[in-house]
Each structure stands twice: as structure tokens, then as C-alpha cells.
């Protein structure tokens, strides 16, 4: 019986990239429903901060990423995207039918764990299967899906505003349907060829040496890995502290800035995310493999900083908020997250590529969760200007770190990059050989 994958090429890329649509859609679905849940259950601002902190935006995703990254390297990329959406669908159903705070919290945590496990492995799989000369284009498809999620969910939320909490339940129900269709299509996906080769060498090494691999331990004992982890934490975690608050709390920021209509808040977000979709496709996917990546990254960072400078220091008017949405939207399309997904796949060896992304995602979402717990209270007590200055500082730091540490990896295969970064001979895998040498040296 043939085991040839039924879903390959761009179809496979899109099927895996849908993890990003589901993740972002979950964050926005919760963001647009927080006020309704707060009224329905009588939550305080601190409790709302807790719900946001354990969601797909923060702690829930952090836990899932740590587990999923390890499992993706140990059992394969296909293992994760076979089961993650089953957990996700269970979580969304609990939210859809939540009549008690415990149901809501459990559903939010499960959806967070599921997307946390799926997203880093999705970025890994897409990069491993992409042609070297089009890797940014393929990885950019995940960013495109991540952008489409908020754009469509905010539009959907605008249409169902009159329904109140029922409308929010319908939005989560739509995510359940998307997750089911995606899971069904993914059944025809094959395993990453890059991982299969690496895993075969791992098994041979463990059989010959008797030494079992410990992914996170090996990852953190390599100085080159630690440097890459610190660099990518600076690029992504700092930027994501800003994006994480915007994803879940931006309607409240608009309200604090004077936009009280939920419909107008959502329409501003539709504009913002539509600009992100356009910038991802016409910017990152079109030029990420063609131009100096460092310059493209910095351009995106500058636009994001400019957006928050306007929000903090300019006189807030409707045209100014529209300009803010456009600037940030374009920035997000060609900025830190797209480059992070690309560089995180390129800067680590196959044997712990998913583990590295899981650890990075874990750190980023833990930081977002800590800030999310206090953000609604800080916004309510100190206003947009106070939190805005914090956001600007984080964005400036991420820009500087990205400019200094951007790797020269464009157009090169993952095997070539791996050989250069880890000192292996061209075409020689680190899996097996490196472990065997280390074991021999310890005898």
C-alpha cells in the first residue's frame, strides 16, 4: 500500500500555516469578547488580565510551545500537527458553551496549549520543506495566515456586535469549524524529509553509544545555540511584548484614546490587519529572498516605532488613529515576527530546531503573560501615554538587536547554514556523528 503523502508543495505549506490563522484568530476572538465575559461573569480588571494571561496570547501558548517543540523533535513534525487541533477543538467547544468561569478558563487554556504546540513546529516544517531560494516566501505564508486571522475575526466581530456575547460564541464556533477542516486536510501530509534523516541518525547514534539525546540540555550547552537564543529573544520576545498587548487589549487602548464604539474599534483593527496582510504578501514574501534582510527588518521596526510615537505624542484624532493602524499594520507585515520565524529555523540544527523554537516561544509568551496580567490596570490607571512609552522602549530595543545580529542566510540551504554554524563538513549531518564523537571522547 502506498504511503506517499496526498498533500504536498504549497498545499502542504498552507495546511500547516493555518496554525497561525487559528492562533491569531483565537487571540482576537478572546480580545473582542473580554468585555462581554467581564459583564457576564462580573470579572474585575485583574481577573480579565488573568484570563488573557492564560490564553493563546501568553501562558497557555507558552506551555504548549515548550511541550510541542520537544515532541516535534523527538516524535516528528507530523506527530504535532496530527493531534494539536484535536485539543484545540475541545477547548473552543468549552468556550462556545461556557456557562461558568471554570469552563471559560479551561477552554482558554486548552486552546492556548494547542496553538502553542502547533505554531513553532509549523514554522519549522515549512522552513524545512521550502526551497532555499524561496524560504522567506514559504515562511511568509505562515505570517500571512497569522495576519488573515485578526483581519477576518475583527471583521466578523464587527458584524456580530449587536448579538453581544452570543456573537462572541459564534466567532469561537467558526474557529472550531476552521480547525476541523484544517485537521482533516492535514491527515494527508507527509513527514518532513529533513527530520526523517536526522531522526534516523539519532536512533543509530543512540543504539551505538547507549546515550539518549536530551534536546533542551544539548540545546543549552552549545554556546552558538545560546547566542542565537539570546539574539532571537531580543528580536521576538521584546517585539511580542508590544504585539501581545495589542492583540488582546487594543480595543481597550482605542477606548482609552476616545474611541468608545466597539464597531469603530473593530474597524480600526480590520484596517490594521488588512495592511499587515498586504505588507506580508507584497513586502516580506515578495522581497524577503531578494533584498538585504537587515534593511527590510529595520524598515519594519521604524514604522512600528513611528506608529506608537504618534499614538503617544500626537493629538489623537480619527485621521491620526487611521495613520497609526496603517503604520503598525505595514510594520507587522515585514517586521519582527516574520523574520523571527525565518531566522529561528535557519539558526539551529535539525535535531533541535523545533525545541529551540518551542523554548523561544515559551519565553516570549511567558513575558507577554506577565505584562498582560497588569496591562488592563496600568491602562485604566495611567492611560495610553504611560503604557505607550513602555511599548516604544521595547520596540527600539528589538530594532537595535535585530540590526546588530541579523544573520547572512539568504538563498542558502539549511544544510549549508548548519555546517557553517556548527563546524561540520559540507553535507555532513551533526546528528549521530557529533553524538558519537562526544560519547567516544567521554570514554
UniProtKB/TrEMBL annotation:
Main location: membrane
InterPro entries: MFS_dom, MFS_sugar_transport-like, MFS_trans_sf, Sugar_transporter_CS
Membrane topology: Multi-pass membrane protein
Alphabetically ordered keywords of this record: Membrane, Transmembrane, Transmembrane helix
Transmembrane segments: 12-37, 43-67, 79-98, 104-123, 144-165, 171-189, 229-254, 266-284, 296-316, 322-344, 356-376, 382-406
Localization annotation: Cell membrane
Annotated PANTHER family: CARBOXYLIC ACID TRANSPORTER PROTEIN HOMOLOG (PTHR23508)
Protein name: MFS transporter
Organism whose genome encodes this protein: Zhihengliuella salsuginis
Lineage: Bacteria, Bacillati, Actinomycetota, Actinomycetes, Micrococcales
Amino acid at each position: 500500500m502506498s504511503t506517499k503523502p496526498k498533500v504536498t508543495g504549497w498545499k502542504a505549506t498552507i495546511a500547516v500555516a493555518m496554525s497561525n490563522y487559528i492562533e491569531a484568530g483565537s487571540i482576537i476572538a478572546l480580545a473582542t469578547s473580554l468585555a462581554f465575559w467581564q459583564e457576564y461573569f462580573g470579572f474585575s480588571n485583574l481577573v480579565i488580565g488573568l484570563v488573557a494571561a492564560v490564553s493563546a496570547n501568553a501562558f497557555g501558548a507558552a506551555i504548549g510551545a515548550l511541550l510541542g517543540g520537544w515532541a516535534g523533535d523527538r516524535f516528528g513534525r507530523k506527530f504535532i500537527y496530527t493531534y494539536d487541533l484535536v485539543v484545540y477543538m475541545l477547548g473552543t467547544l468549552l468556550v462556545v458553551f461556557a456557562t461558568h468561569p471554570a469552563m471559560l478558563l479551561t477552554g482558554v487554556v486548552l486552546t492556548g496549549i494547542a496553538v502553542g504546540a502547533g505554531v513553532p513546529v509549523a514554522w519549522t516544517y515549512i522552513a524545512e520543506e521550502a526551497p532555499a531560494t524561496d524560504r522567506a516566501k514559504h515562511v511568509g505564508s505562515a505570517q500571512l495566515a497569522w495576519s488573515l486571522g485578526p483581519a477576518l475575526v475583527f471583521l466578523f466581530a464587527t458584524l456580530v456586535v449587536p448579538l453581544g456575547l452570543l456573537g462572541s460564541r459564534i466567532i469561537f464556533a467558526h474557529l472550531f469549524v476552521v480547525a476541523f477542516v484544517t485537521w482533516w486536510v492535514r491527515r494527508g501530509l507527509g513527514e518532513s524529509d529533513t527530520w526523517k534523516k536526522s531522526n534516523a541518525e539519532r536512533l543509530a547514534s543512540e543504539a551505538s553509544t547507549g546515550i539518549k539525546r536530551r534536546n533542551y540540555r544539548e540545546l543549552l550547552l552549545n554556546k552558538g545555540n545560546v547566542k542565537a537564543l539570546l539574539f532571537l529573544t531580543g528580536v521576538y520576545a521584546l517585539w511580542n511584548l508590544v504585539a501581545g498587548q495589542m492583540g488582546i487589549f487594543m480595543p481597550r487602548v482605542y477606548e482609552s484614546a476616545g474611541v468608545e464604539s466597539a464597531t469603530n474599534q473593530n474597524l480600526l483593527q480590520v484596517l490594521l490587519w488588512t495592511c499587515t496582510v498586504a505588507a506580508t504578501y507584497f513586502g516580506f514574501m515578495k522581497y524577503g529572498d531578494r533584498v538585504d534582510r537587515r534593511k527590510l527588518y529595520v524598515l519594519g521596526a521604524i514604522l512600528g516605532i513611528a506608529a506608537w510615537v504618534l499614538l503617544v505624542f500626537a493629538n489623537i484624532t480619527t485621521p491620526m488613529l487611521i495613520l497609526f493602524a496603517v503604520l503598525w499594520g505595514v510594520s507587522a507585515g515585514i517586521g519582527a515576527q516574520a523574520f523571527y520565524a525565518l531566522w529561528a529555523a535557519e539558526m539551529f540544527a535539525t535535531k533541535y530546531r523545533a525545541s529551540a523554537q518551542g523554548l523561544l516561544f515559551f519565553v516570549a509568551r511567558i513575558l507577554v503573560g506577565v505584562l498582560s496580567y497588569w496591562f488592563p490596570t496600568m491602562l485604566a490607571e495611567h492611560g495610553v501615554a504611560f503604557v505607550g512609552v513602555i511599548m516604544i522602549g521595547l520596540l527600539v530595543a528589538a530594532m537595535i538587536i535585530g540590526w546588530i545580529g541579523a544573520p547572512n542566510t539568504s538563498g542558502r540551504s539549511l544544510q549549508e547554514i548548519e555546517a557553517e554554524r556548527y563546524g561540520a563538513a559540507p553535507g555532513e549531518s551533526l546528528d549521530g556523528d557529533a553524538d558519537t564523537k562526544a560519547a567516544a571522547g567521554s570514554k
